[in-house]
Amino acid sequence: MKQKDLNEAVECINNKINILLEQFDIKLVYIFGSYAKGTNTKNSDLDIAILLGEYTPYDKINLISELAGILNRDDIDVVILNDANSILKFQVIKYGKIVYKVSEYEKVIFESKTMDEYMDMEYYRNRQKQVMDITFKEKWGMLNDKRHS
Questions:
Q1: At the N or C end, where does the chain have fewer CB atoms within 10 A?
Q2: 140: pLDDT strictly greater than 80
Q3: How far is CA 12 from CA 23, 38, 63, 67, 87, in A?
Q4: Nearest CA to 63 among 100, 38, 35, 110?
């Protein structure tokens, strides 16, 4: 049965987290996306972000499979935060809801590093946007000129 809201999803994960902790080195679990925002519908997938300690690619596959079984749904989107880019990690900590943390220390360290990475790259993201805007305006201007000639 699909969880109808954030509280049901959190409760379901918390009730079964020990099964996952026996098999995987889980440090943090967040729910993000439409469930975290409260805008989910019956067709929404469930977005889950997980920070792992030691893991292998095989562990990631097994973790996703175990989560699908625990939540009794196949429409989950799992992000392994260890492999995510700084923008996605920042979005998860800014808008997501923490479901599990091995310790407050682990949460603070992860979120601090994520914010540092995100802020370090802000100049480059802004510069890239400026270049894209200029390029788009130049090309769009040329297209408009051709249409009106």
A1: C
A2: no
A3: 18, 17, 16, 10, 28
A4: 100
- The residue ranking higher by pLDDT, 111 or 131, is 111
> Which of helix, strand or coil describes residue 50?
strand
Closest CA to 12 of 40, 33, 26, 31: 31
Give the Å distances, CA to CA, from 76 to 43, 46, 61, 63, 139: 11, 5, 13, 12, 40
Question: Which range marks the domain in which residue 46 is found?
Answer: 6-148
141 or 63: which leads in pLDDT: 63
The verdict on residue 59 lying in a domain is yes
| DSSP classification of residue 28 | E
Residue 1 lies in a domain: no
DSSP-derived letter for residue 74 is: S
CATH code of the domain in which 32 resides: 3.30.460.10
pLDDT, tens digit (0-9, with 9 covering 90-100), for 35-90: 999 999 888 999 999 999 999 999 999 999 999 998 888 899 999 999 999 999 99
Give the C-alpha separation, 66 to 69, whole Å: 5
Q: 21 CB contacts (<8 Å, ≥6 apart)?
A: none
Q: What is the pTM of this model?
A: 0.79
